[in-house]
Design a protein that fits this description.
CATH architecture: 4-Layer Sandwich
Order of helices and strands: EHHEEEEHEHE
Largest sheet: 7 strands, antiparallel
Number of strands: 7
Strand order of the largest sheet: 2-3-4-5-1-6-7
Shape: globular
Radius of gyration: 17 Å
Length: 150
């Protein structure tokens, strides 16, 4: 059984104006936090870079963290959410389409292991560096065009 989970999300084909808009990103964070019942322990910290660069944001959560960096010049966004306890999947594709106009979304979910069971050696249960059985890559293509991993 997994101890926690982490999502690494890359979205492309986003509306450059939306990924450069702080209010839009705050609304995205609010949706993620509310719908996954997360608990911020402090206000989000945001840095808006001079155009054409994007925005970086992070919020510390009781569960760990939610972070983002946007690239308006490329119409893309990179998100990272780590939760110390397992969570249900979040509809990344649908929400990133709604909030940002994303046409291609790649979601990688990593199961995180940091506790051990009594009598079980931690290092024996971990996959080798060449294996990745706990990572799943879920590429999504929305509409016509190349797949999310092209």
């Amino acid at each position: 059984m997994t101890d926690g989970c982490e999502w690494i999300v890359d979205a492309r084909g986003c509306d450059p104006a939306r990924v450069a808009d702080l209010a839009t990103l705050r609304a995205l964070f609010a949706s993620i936090i509310e719908e996954l019942c997360l608990s911020p322990v402090a206000d989000a910290v945001w840095h808006v870079f001079p155009p054409p660069a994007g925005i970086t944001g992070i919020v510390a959560l009781a569960e760990s963290h939610l972070a983002v960096h946007t690239f308006p010049e490329h119409g893309s966004i990179c998100l990272n959410l780590f939760c110390c306890k397992p969570r249900a999947e979040w509809p990344w594709v649908e929400r990133l389409r709604e909030h940002l106009g994303a046409t291609h979304v790649a979601v990688r979910r990593l199961d995180r292991y940091y506790a051990t069971e009594p009598g079980c050696e931690y290092h024996q249960s971990m996959p080798s560096a060449t294996q990745s059985p706990t990572a799943s890559i879920l590429p999504y293509a929305l509409g016509p065009g190349p797949s999310a991993l092209d």
